[in-house]
# Entry
Amino acid sequence: MIRTLFLLMPVMLLGLKNNGQTPLPQRPVSQNAVDTSSPAKTKEKDMGDVLLHLFYPHKPLPADSTEVKDTKKHFSLVPAVGYTLQTGFAGLVSGNMAWYNDIAGDAKISSISTNVTYSQYRQIMIPFQINLWTKGNRYNIITDFRFIKYPSVIYGLGGDSDPNQGYTIDFSGIKVHQTVMRALGGDFYVGLGYYFDKIWHIRATDSLSDDLKEQLKQTLHRKETASGFALRFLYDSRLNQINPQQGIYFNIVYRNNLKGLGSYSNWQSLLIDSRTYLHFPRQSHNVLSFWLMDWLTLDGSPPYLLLPSTGWDDNYNSGRGYIQGRYRGNNMQYFESEYRFGITRNGLIGGVAFVNLQHFSNEISDAFSTYFPGYGLGLRIKLNKHSGANLCIDYGFGQNGSRGFFVNLGEIF
# Structure
């Protein structure tokens, strides 16, 4: 749910979560992966190998059981602590179950994951996510349920908002997004979904004037509901969604919210999300990646807290260099490029350099036509060499002195 730096048992979490992630014939080349057929190459390592050697220095590494698929269910239940700009320090308990529904070479892994998080700023977050692939990858069933009680800062609309004039608000929210996708052939999918978002008990918690409180109340209302159908098209040729090394991801979601289904107002939105990955230089294991996202309001007026905003994409990863919610508007265009490279030959440590650009547009004011750049560097620590899962620790810079740490499990995109 949040960008979280796990400090307790990160290897257990990723090792169990992704056990049997990819069979050897289908496994993509992971960051810093080596050709083990050549004795001159260094064998790849992850944090599990490091801890095993630390506590059992004379014990040989276990056989690579992830090279053989099975339909067993693999569980994890792990406590952890972390820190983010938006939450401060946070404690959580995370659970996960992962499995294959068949053992075909191109079978995709299914998973159920959840956690309960409580933060320094009295935020509560409980996501429950299911990504289910049926036999033969014929159907993909996606469930995204989240409950949040989320005191946080808002900055108004557009690019002229003052970074020193944020207002703390408190609200509770629930999100239920359910989609069923049907394979058309190859890596193409199309499907229908029902999206429901409800936000309530919205109130300002800062000491504000009565006039400003009334303005915020009119903008935010006391509660908001969005309910409607979604049409989704997906093309995904990536072999590994946790740490993509190649391929193209192209996702289109049209959402139509209707009063007749309980929505506060009628409004429509369109999300176009495209990502490309390639090796650069071509014969290396370094990856140059590109992310382009258009998050558009087609018609009507979405609730303020559901408008396109920095860091409020589905995975809360956009806009490194800025705090979540820093910019908001009716339409958001976003671009990011990241270069991922190895530091150690055994694949344990890697690095990234990234740049991004946000743009918010609206008919209200020319102030929305400002572009907001971000950039930074990051460190990658291999938690699971079989799935390619990394612990990502980035430091990003934005405009007007905005900067901070951004931490994630799995690549940002």
Q: What stands out?
A: DSSP finds three helices and 17 strands in the chain. Residues 1-40 have pLDDT under 50 and may be disordered. Helices lie at 10-17, 47-55, 210-220. The longest strand covers residues 167-185.
